[in-house]
């Protein structure tokens, strides 16, 4: 392993031609072959007319399959392999630190991993107190065209990490919300998680394996495996090598389709005789699997029937097929009375298949209790069967499934997927809609009036019919309530009202689905709602339905509803109007949730339909077992930061015993009483304040005393969290963490009470510094513990939610225009209009109360000074002193009100501007001015130049002014040296301090000015 520091190296590249040439030459390739291979690789990596995704995919093809080269006319084409996939350790591995990238904007990734001189991994490292999210967002911005997208055309792994949270990984183009975490050997707690998982994933053999067997390009998205997919494939590979079948149980939404693609690719590539047939029992799943394989670049033959499948398997090609299991040739008669005889007949005369057949059966628990699986085993007795399921096997399914397929190959349960963030947790809500008759008296009167001419028998029959009619009427009223309830949700539920999410309503029958659809067409859902059922209108459906009573039977209603909604649909080639309509509705539902708000279904789309925007499932149908579980999992797909759960609304009371699926947990809630300061003399208050601070410090010392030496970050994590990958450890140590959090809050409060009066409280200057340092240490430890235990929150993903909350639920009265300066702050208004107009427009309600006006202006000025003081301490300290002087004059009545207003307006203008009027023109940015203001009295300057430090600013415009020259020199040095994303990263902060020291040659001055540089946004 070679390691470099490339911070100052020129021409850093994602293809280090020297290293790659050296490797290829050592692998036995000739100079012409090496030259052509390099040329093709460079051409594909930097294609100007393709996106980063396109270039990355083209480069991956060359890495994965080699570069075809032809060095002379007439000679055969040969393949130059850029990476040795079979013998991982025979590749040349290197790590480069601080790789400065030149482009439109200069950036500097922390670590870049190279294999044979080709950049395959980028890692951003953060301080343990800084969120991994910052590193991820930094990598994402680096991939933008305006930064260094060109560098990522060869990159396979994009990683970010810190010592407290560990590591997350993705690939080129992976959105921040889809970055993944690795999980392995959870019991190992010997080191930081970052180190642990870097060692796991970046092991030479594994990183080569991940690139070779686990990279997928699908529909414009590059994907890497989640940890459960990796280990599921590894377990399946061992079964395949031994020609053993089994079941892979990965919960709904965990990516079974991708698992099938990766496993099929591996089988076909590693066994030349292999054939893979993928069997499903739903048309939707069959289409989905065909689409996933096609998008991934794999040619798959979709057979039309069981007979077609067997015919194709009887030939040498194709090697990859899919088929619908219910087209496998079993009639209802065979499936019942003659089923066993049918099985024996098939077993006696099995069909001949070519090659070694591996059969993947999706949702293997279904298909008539395993009967059809037995048919397939009879048809293909030598095939290896691998079952895939997303639902737990119930007792009645388990025996049959295990008998057909064998034991479990790998399991990944719903609770694990939720914990890992692979799918969302589900929130259940049962809603009861009472049904009752309106006026019984009026019903009886109506019945008596209508039945006067009837005999008792006729009345009895009509009463029976009336009972049915009551149900129909009651159902109509109930459906109206359901519709109103759903519309209300779409108005108030954030995910629905924002139009980023949509919903599915499950009806009990095709009639009810059509009824619901027509009811929604009379609401704001018109044109944005669709009905999708197994019904396809045919004229024969209603031939015998007309009764001539100017009414509509149930079948006529269904037929007429479908006829109307399909009236303007143009059937696409090879599809019926209904299929065309449904395809368009599903596409809108997935891609444009604002234009397709609701789908009304009965059975269709409840399995194998992945629609990330789907946030709510409304159930008005009796369901159970697998059907119910699969249906509710339509809502658990990840889709943006504002989708936090999948919501299930149950109108049929299906869940009698539903545990609370949402746990409200805050990282730190402190209800401890700080106590009010006693209203006593100053000395008593400070005595009490010191006592509280001393007690708080002692309490924190006792809390941390058991932490084993050397009492570093890792030791604190172990003591307060245990093994952060074992839930019981975190739970067991929760009391220690809560005590620590509360102790830090108590210490902060105690310190805040005396922070400005440490000397009067009896602390020496050394004691005060030591206490401040100790406080900073405890705050740093708290952040590390919170991040390590997961008891913190990266607020960035929640910004949209909070904005929506404010926009939706905060109401305002009709605005009353009082001035043309509604949105301008008081200080801005003073600068723009002058003090008199500012008071008239902004403080009109205080007119006549001079003290209130004065205090309001002073508070605004003071607030601005405090807010900006870190950016330029010298300037704002001077402004603060001027303000104090003016306030004292006002309170002592030593100044007239008019003069006071003039002077306070002057200081307000200076504070708002952040600079004096006579500031040197060379100091043309806030950063330069801040440095200048804070070096004017610097001992470094005094040691080299004799000057009048309080000379007017205007004198500093001369070339000889040492303060200006020093400020400009410092500004230039910092801007040349600053690494990307340096704040909060100790190693990068040291680069800034080194640049300051080179100019100042004084450690104390470096530390003082560093704080100002840190606070200035331009640096």
* Dominant shape: globular
The total strand number stands at 23
**What strand order characterises the main sheet?**
13-14-12-15-16-11-17
Give unreliable regions as ranges.
329-339, 466-474, 655-683, 793-824, 945-958
The end-to-end distance, rounded to whole angstroms, is 35 Å
Q: Helix segment count?
A: 38
- Structural category is alpha/beta
**Residues in β-strands, percent:** 5-15%
Overall pLDDT metric: 77
Instruction: Classify the helix fraction into a percent range.
Output: 40-55%
Question: What is the element layout, followed by pairings?
Answer:
Elements: E1 2-5, H1 17-26, H2 31-45, H3 52-65, E2 67-69, E3 78-80, E4 93-97, E5 111-115, E6 118-125, H4 132-142, E7 157-162, E8 166-170, H5 193-201, H6 204-213, E9 216-218, E10 221-223, H7 227-241, E11 246-250, H8 256-270, E12 274-280, H9 283-295, E13 301-302, H10 306-313, E14 320-324, H11 332-335, H12 339-348, E15 356-362, H13 371-379, E16 384-389, H14 395-405, E17 408-412, H15 414-419, E18 426-430, H16 440-450, H17 456-492, H18 494-497, E19 502-506, H19 510-520, E20 529-532, H20 554-565, H21 577-591, E21 598-601, E22 614-619, H22 625-632, E23 646-650, H23 682-704, H24 713-721, H25 727-732, H26 734-754, H27 765-789, H28 799-809, H29 826-833, H30 835-842, H31 850-868, H32 873-891, H33 897-913, H34 926-935, H35 939-944, H36 962-977, H37 986-1000, H38 1003-1015
Parallel strand pairs: 1-4, 6-7, 11-16, 11-17, 12-14, 12-15, 13-14, 15-16, 18-23, 19-21, 19-22, 20-21, 22-23
Antiparallel strand pairs: 2-3, 4-5, 5-6, 7-8, 9-10
């Amino acid at each position: 392993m070679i390691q470099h520091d490339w911070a100052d190296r020129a021409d850093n590249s994602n293809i280090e031609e020297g290293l790659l040439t050296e490797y290829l030459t050592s692998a036995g390739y000739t100079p012409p072959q090496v030259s052509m291979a390099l040329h093709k690789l460079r051409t594909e990596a930097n294609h100007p007319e393709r996106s980063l995704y396109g270039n990355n995919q083209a480069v991956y093809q060359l890495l994965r399959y080699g570069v075809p080269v032809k060095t002379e006319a007439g000679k055969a084409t040969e393949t130059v392999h850029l990476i040795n996939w079979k013998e991982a350790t025979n590749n040349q591995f290197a790590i480069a630190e601080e790789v400065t990238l030149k482009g439109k904007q200069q950036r500097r990734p922390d670590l870049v991993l190279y294999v044979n001189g080709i950049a395959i991994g980028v890692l951003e490292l953060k301080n343990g107190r800084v969120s991994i999210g910052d590193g991820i967002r930094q990598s994402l911005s680096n991939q933008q065209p305006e930064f260094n997208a060109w560098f990522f055309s060869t990159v396979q792994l994009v990683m970010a990490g810190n010592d407290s949270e560990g590591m997350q990984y993705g690939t080129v183009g992976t959105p921040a919300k889809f970055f993944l975490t690795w999980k392995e050997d959870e019991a190992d707690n010997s080191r930081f998680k970052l180190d642990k998982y870097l060692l796991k994933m970046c092991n030479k053999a594994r990183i080569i394996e991940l690139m070779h067997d686990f990279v997928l390009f699908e529909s414009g998205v590059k994907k890497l495996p989640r940890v459960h997919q990796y280990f599921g494939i590894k377990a399946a590979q061992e079964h395949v090598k031994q020609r053993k079948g089994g079941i892979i149980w990965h919960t709904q939404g965990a990516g079974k389709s991708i698992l099938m693609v990766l496993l099929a690719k591996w089988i076909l590539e590693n066994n030349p005789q292999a054939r893979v047939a993928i069997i499903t029992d739903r048309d939707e799943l069959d289409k989905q699997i065909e689409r996933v394989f096609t998008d991934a670049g794999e040619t798959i033959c979709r057979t039309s029937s069981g007979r077609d499948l067997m015919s194709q398997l009887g030939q040498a090609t194709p090697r990859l097929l899919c088929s619908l299991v219910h087209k496998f040739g079993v009639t209802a008669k065979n499936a019942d009375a003659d089923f066993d005889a049918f099985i024996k007949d098939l077993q006696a005369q099995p069909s001949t298949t070519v090659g070694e057949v591996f059969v993947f059966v999706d949702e293997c628990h279904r298909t008539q209790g395993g009967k059809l699986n037995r048919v397939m085993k009879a048809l293909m007795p030598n095939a290896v069967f691998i079952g895939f399921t997303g639902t737990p096997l119930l007792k009645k399914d388990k025996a049959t499934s295990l008998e057909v397929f064998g034991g479990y190959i790998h399991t990944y349960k719903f609770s694990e997927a939720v914990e890992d963030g692979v799918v969302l947790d589900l929130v259940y809500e049962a809603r009861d809609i009472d049904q009752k008759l309106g006026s019984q008296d009026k019903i009886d009167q109506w019945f008596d009036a209508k039945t006067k001419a009837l005999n008792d028998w006729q009345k009895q029959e009509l009463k029976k019919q009336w009972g049915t009619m009551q149900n129909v009427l009651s159902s109509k009223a109930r459906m109206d309530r359901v519709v109103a309830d759903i519309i209300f949700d779409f108005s108030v539920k954030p995910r629905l009202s924002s139009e980023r999410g949509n919903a599915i309503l499950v009806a009990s029958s095709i009639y009810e689905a059509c009824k619901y659809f027509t009811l929604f067409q009379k609401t704001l859902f018109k044109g944005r709602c669709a009905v999708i059922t197994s019904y396809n209108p045919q004229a024969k459906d209603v031939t015998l339905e007309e009764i001539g009573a100017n009414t509509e039977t149930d079948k006529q209603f269904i037929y007429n509803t479908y006829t109307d909604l399909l009236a303007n649909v143009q059937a696409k080639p090879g599809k019926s109007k209904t299929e065309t309509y449904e395809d368009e509705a599903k596409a809108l539902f997935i891609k444009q949730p604002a234009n397709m708000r609701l789908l009304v279904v009965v059975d269709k789309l409840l399995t194998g339909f992945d629609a990330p925007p789907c946030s709510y499932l409304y159930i008005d149908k009796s369901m159970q077992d697998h059907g119910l579980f699969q249906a509710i999992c339509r809502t658990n797909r990840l889709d943006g930061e504002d989708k936090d759960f999948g919501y299930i609304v149950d109108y049929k009371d299906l869940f009698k015993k539903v545990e609370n699926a949402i746990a409200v947990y805050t990282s730190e809630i402190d209800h401890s009483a700080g106590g009010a300061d006693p209203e006593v003399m100053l000395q008593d208050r400070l005595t009490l304040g010191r006592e509280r601070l001393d007690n708080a410090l002692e309490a924190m010392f006792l809390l941390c005393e058991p932490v084993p030496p050397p009492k570093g970050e890792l030791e604190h994590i172990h003591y307060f969290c245990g093994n952060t990958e074992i839930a019981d450890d975190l739970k067991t140590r929760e009391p220690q963490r809560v005590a620590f959090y509360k102790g830090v809050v108590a210490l902060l409060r105690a310190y805040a009470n005396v922070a400005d009066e440490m000397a009067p409280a009896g602390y020496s200057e050394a004691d005060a510094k030591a206490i401040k340092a100790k406080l900073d240490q405890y705050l740093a430890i708290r952040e590390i513990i919170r991040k390590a235990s997961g008891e913190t929150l990266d607020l960035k993903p929640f910004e949209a939610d909070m904005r929506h909350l404010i926009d939706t639920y905060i109401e305002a009265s009709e605005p009353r225009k009082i001035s043309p300066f509604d949105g301008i702050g008081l200080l801005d208004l003073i600068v723009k209009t002058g003090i008199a107009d500012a008071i008239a427009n902004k403080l009109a309600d205080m007119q006549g109360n001079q003290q209130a006006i004065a205090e309001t202006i002073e508070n605004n000025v003071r607030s601005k000074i405090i807010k900006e003081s870190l950016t330029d301490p010298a300037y704002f300290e001077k402004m603060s002193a001027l303000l104090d002087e003016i306030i004292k004059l006002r309170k002592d009545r030593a100044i007239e009100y008019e003069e006071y207003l003039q002077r306070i307006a002057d200081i307000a203008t200076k504070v708002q501007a952040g600079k004096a009027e006579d500031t040197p023109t060379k100091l043309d940015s806030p950063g330069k001015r801040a440095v200048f203001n804070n070096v004017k009295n610097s001992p470094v300057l005094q040691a080299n130049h004799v000057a009048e430090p309080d000379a007017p600013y205007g004198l500093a415009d001369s070339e000889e002014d040492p303060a200006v020259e020093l400020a400009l020199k410092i500004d230039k040095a910092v801007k040349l040296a600053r690494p990307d994303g340096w704040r909060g990263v100790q190693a990068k902060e040291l680069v800034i301090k080194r640049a300051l020291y080179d100019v100042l040659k004084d450690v104390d001055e470096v530390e003082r000015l560093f704080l100002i540089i840190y606070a200035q946004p331009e640096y």
